[in-house]
Amino acid sequence: MRVADGWEDYELLDATGGERLERWGDAVLVRPDPQVVWKSKPVSPLWKRADAVYHRSEKGGGCWQQNRTLPPKWQIGYGGLRLVVSPTGFKHTGVFPEQAVNWGWYAEAVRAAGRPVRVLNLFGYTGGATLACAAAGAAVCHVDASKGIVAWARENAAASGLAGRPIRWIVDDCAKFVAREQRRASRYDAIIMDPPSYGRGPGGEVWKLEDNIYDLIALCAGVLSDAPLFVAVSSYTAGLSPAVMEYILKTTLCPVYGGRTSCDEIGLPVSATGGVVPCGATAFWQAGE
Fold first, then answer.
1. I want to staple 188 with a disulfide (CB 3.0 to 4.6 A). Which of 100, 109, 120, 134 is the partner?
2. Are 266 and 245 in contact (CB under 8 A)?
3. pLDDT score, position 58
4. pLDDT digits (tens, 9 = 90+) for 126-136
5. Residue 190 has pLDDT above 90, yes or no
6. From CA 105, how far away is CA 230, in angstroms rounded?
7. CB-based contact 174:216 (threshold 8 Å)
8. pLDDT tens digit sequence for 169-185
């Protein structure tokens, strides 16, 4: 497992009983996490002093119980990036902190290329991967189906001092956008995708990861450049193992481009126990031997 242990402004303080206790800057939040199936005794004393707790509703969604009035949004930093945090009605905060271990990987791959690099970031969310690649010198095309989320990503770019970098901000269904890029003969040296388990596009298109991921990866193969660097696919779906995603990359990309594949879980260290909470997985295709 690769662990996102480079944070200063974020900390997974403790985890038990289906919940995480987290520090986001100066704010301490409690959020549900279905991966936390153990019921060990809470260790951190901050469980009783959390600033806000997210409660799920039996009808879906949920709400925040604030024990201290929090601002609607604030910023945290990671590796020179500034990211806006805002607790939403769906328990998310706008940042998936475990993905920081991938941001560093992407940035290093871009810098090591020693040449101009074009990156396509699909399901780009609030832009962590986009900004990491842009800061490393890449030109990035950021695509997400949500207009509000893309606006949030642009806010993060401005906060990080990257608003002037070559980033295209696209609100669109990812598969439809890639199909158009293929027809336009647009090419990218690297592709990142962090798709949800389930979602809907701006036109009501239904996305279900298990049903759609193979076709999307195969489609993306058609917009890779003649000398691609990498393709990375992340997943939070428990039923889709890292090895399944790696197998798709191996069978779609290696016959055409050679290279190698790998996969692994990603996770967050728990300060109170020294353990690691698994937070999904990423599979990679990389150029070279």
1. 120
2. no
3. 77
4. 999 999 999 99
5. yes
6. 11
7. yes
8. 999 999 999 999 999 99
CB 10 within 8 A of CB 23: yes
Q: What is residue 201's predicted lDDT score, i.e. its pLDDT?
A: 65
Tell me, letter by letter, the H, E, C secondary structure of the chain.
CEECCCCCCEEEEEEECCEEEEEECCEEEEEECCCCCCCCCCCCHHHHHCCEEEEECCCCCEEEEECCCCCCCEEEEECCEEEEECCCCCCCCCCCHHHHHHHHHHHHHHHHHCCCCEEEEECCCCCHHHHHHHHCCCEEEEEECCHHHHHHHHHHHHHCCCCCCCEEEEECCHHHHHHHHHHCCCCECEEEECCCCEEECCCCCEEEHHHHHHHHHHHHHHHECCCCCEEEEEECCCCCCHHHHHHHHHHHHHHHHCCEEEEEEEEEEECCCCCEEEEEEEEEEECCC
Sign of CA dihedral 152, 178, 131, 165: negative
| C-beta neighbour count of 147 within 10 angstroms | 11
C-alpha torsion angle, residues 219, 198, 53, 277 (rounded to 10): -60
For the stretch 51-85, pLDDT in tens is 999 998 877 789 999 999 999 999 999 999 999 99
Q: Which two tokens stand for residue 158?
A: 């401005």
Q: Per the structure block, which two tokens stand in for 239?
A: 């039923």
Q: For residue 231, what are the β-bridge partners?
A: 191, 285
Question: Side chain identity at 132, as an amino acid letter?
Answer: A
Nearest-5° Cα angle at 180, 234 to 229:
45
